[in-house]
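Item description
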Amino acid sequence: MIDSSLQLGRLDVSAYTVPTSAPEGDGTLAWDATTIVLVQAVAGSWTGIGWTFAPGTCAALIKETLEPAVTGLNCFDVPAAAEAMARAVRNTPRPGLAGYAISAVDCALWDLKARILGLPLHRLLGAARAEVEIYGSGGFTTYSEAQLRRQLEGWTGQQQIPRVKIKIGEDRGANTARDLLRIRQARDTIGPHVQLFVDANGAYTAKQAVRVFDAAAEQDLTWFEEPVSSDHLEGLRQVRQSVTADVAAGEYGTTLFYFQQMCGAGAVDCLQVDVSRCGGITEWFRAAAVAAAHGLEVSGHCAPNLTVPAAASTRNFRHLEWFHDHVRIEEMFFDGTPDPQGGSVRPSDDRPGNGLIFRALDAEPYRI
């Protein structure tokens, strides 16, 4: 019999830095390693897992500020834990790194609850769909033509994924000639029937973004992510009104008001929400409700294996970013990751929680 008064015992927190498979970059940043901060929420003999991709200092924030706020709370009362964490970071403050930290803990708590109940997490949340559509994401500006071609062929040929995204906006928008060349190369590689998305990571000005889109008109772009900074809501709105592709942003949102302001400004056609940044599964659903109130769908940004259960349980969900960097790390560290063959993944009904098992020994060499 399940003890309905079971209390959270502790949070075990660890961080791991994994070198990238090759140098990676986009329009406004370059990197050669990625850090994952893992939370294991422990109650009795049960453990739930959650994570975020953030600097290692996020781990200290979780141990020093969030663990005291949630330890001893009823494991089934995840919204109470979310409220306790929100209050604990008032002076941190919530936007930014604290939002990432809360997200990792919140996801671990939902996973813990599902495991205690012996339920797949998407069943606990209440599934809205059997499968979650995904798109291949990578196409870094640092890639050579051959590297880009291999990655695109892997997604569209081997895995039969019908949607792919590449990075543009190289050198903060100073190399649009190469941007346009890479867009043409991508279209030539994937053919006419695969959807082609682009992500400028805020590298352009509004008019520059429109000029680039117009110059790439023959390549049939259907998704234009962060053509300008996601903080520039008026610029996003200007681009949205000037191009036929759906304009998307929202990946940096760590508060509900951020999503409300973006939707209310008419800045996007599809709201991006990152479950490892926004405040976890608890806030994911609230952000999705904000989008729905504005007649919008949501798209999951990164941390794909963490996102699948929430995505499967969201009515106004469009697709999930199958981001190369994060997919690689998650497949290295966890057993039970789903297969994106055909362009969708199916959450497991055979395993409790998020269905993943942390491979601690495999992760240990990367611990920081």
Q: What stands out?
A: The chain has two domains: 10-119+360-366, 123-358. The first strand starts at residue 10 and ends at 25. Residues 173 and 341 are 34 Å apart (CA to CA).
